[in-house]
Amino acid sequence: MARFIKYKKYVPEPASEMSMEDLLKALSDYLLQSGFQQQYMDFYDLKDAEQTLEALRQAIAEALLNSDMLDQQMREQIENMSPEQMEDLIEQLIERMEQENYINVDQPHDPSRSSTAGGQVGDAQSQARFEITDKGLDFLGFRALRDLLGSLGKSNFGRHDTRDQATGIEASGATKTYEFGDTLNLDITATLSSAIQREGLHLPLNIEYSDLQVHQCEYQSSCATVLLLDCSHSMILYGEDRFTPAKKVAMALSHLIRTQYPGDSLSLVLFHDSAEELPLSQLARVKVGPYYTNTREGLRMAQRILQRQRKDMKQIVMITDGKPSALTLEDGRIYKNAFGLDPLVVSETLKEVSKCKRAGILINTFMLASDYGLIQFVQKVTEMCRGKAYFTTPYTLGQYLLMDYMSHKTKTVH
Hints:
6-stranded mixed sheet; 3 domains; 16% strand; 14 strands; alpha/beta; Rossmann fold
C-alpha cells in the first residue's frame, strides 16, 4: 500500500522569525529621541522623564504597522491579528529584546502580568522603565554609520593618510634598504634577490646587513577629537528636531573611530547654560538641556580634555544651531543674554578660540541654522583658527561631518 506525505504551507511565527536588527532600526527614532515630542515641557521635568515599557509597546505597534521592515506574508499575518494577538506578539518581541541584550528592564519582565481583562496594562507594568544597552547603542551606531556612508557611495574607508612614508605593518609603499630604527617588516623577495645578486645562487646563502630590505607603508597620523554638541533648547524648537540627527551622527562617528581608527580618540562635551563631559556610552540617553548657549565654557572644557591627549592632531568638532548667549563669570554665576550678539559674550568666546589656535587645536564648525549673526560669528571663528565651517541641515550633517573626518585635509603631519 503506497504511503503519502501531506505537506502544508509553512506559516512563519512572527515573534521568532522577525529580525531584531530590523526592529531596532525601525525603533531608532523612538529610542534616540531628544525631547522633540515634549518640547514645551519644563527642562527639569524632561530630564527626569524615562522611557516606559508602555511607550515602547506603542512604538513597536506603530513600527509593525507602518514601517517597511516586514515581508508581504508577515505583514498580512499581522494585519489580520486580533488586538489580543497583537498584544501577545508585542510582549514576545520585548522579551526577545531583553533576552538578546538590546534592552534592560528595571524589573523582571512577566508577560503574563502585562494585561488585564479590560485590555489595559497593569499599573506596575505600565510604569516599568527600560534602558537601551551598550549592545543596542553599538548596533544603532553601526547602522547610522552604514546608512551615512552608503548615501556617500563609500564601501571602504581607511585611515588618516599623510604624505610621509614610514616602515610599519601594512605594506603600501615601495621597498627600501633597512635603517636602524625601522620596523623590521622584511620584504623577503627583495632581501634574497639582493643577496643572490652579490653572492650568486648557491647554498648556504650569505645575507648581510646591507641586503635587508623592508616594506614602506603610508604614515598614518593619530587624531584626538572632542565633539562639542549644542544641546540648548533651541535644538528642538521651531518645528524641527536638530538634536536627534546630531546624536545619530555622533554615534556613527564613535563607531567609525572605534572600528576603523583605533589609534584615535573621541570625547563628548555637551554645552548649554554651562558645559559637561559625557561618556559616549550615555549619548543616546541625552535629551536637550536648558535654554542658553555657553559656547565659551564648551571650548574651555574641550581644551582641558585635549591637553591630556598625546596625538599628532587635535581638533574640536562643534555642532550648533545658535549664537553664543551665555557666559560663566569668574564668581561662577552665569551671565545670559539671548537678544542679539552680546559684545561681552562674543569677545570672551573669541578669546577662547584664540587659545585653541595657540595650542594647535583646530575648530571645525557644523551649523544647523542660517541666522545672519551666527554666520558672522562662525566665519570669525573659522578665520581665527583656520578651521572650516559647514552650513548644513540635520539631513546632510552626517555626510559633511564623516567625509571631513575621513579626508582629514585639516592638517598634514610631516
